[in-house]
Automatic annotation (TrEMBL):
GO terms for cellular component: mitochondrial large ribosomal subunit. GO terms for molecular function: rRNA binding; structural constituent of ribosome. The keyword Membrane does not apply. This is 50S ribosomal protein L16, chloroplastic. Keywords: Ribonucleoprotein, Ribosomal protein.
Length: 63
């Protein structure tokens, strides 16, 4: 969703968008990895977590 400099969502002439925000519900999946080894995926999770500053959890789905 786009947000304006006033901190409001767009609509009703509030100004031009400053940045975008993503709405993710609790227990939602932010990143899904495929085609990489588990070692590489586990190494990538702390890097991603340091950039978005949220609690994360690694879940392995074996088919």
């Amino acid at each position: 969703k786009p947000q304006t400099s006033m901190g409001l969502f767009l609509g009703s002439g509030k100004g031009s968008p400053e940045y975008w925000v993503a709405v993710v519900k609790p227990s939602g999946i932010l990143y899904e990895m495929g085609g990489v080894s588990e070692t590489v995926a586990r190494a990538a999770i702390p890097i991603v977590a340091s950039k978005i500053h949220i609690r994360n959890q690694f879940i392995l789905l074996e088919i």
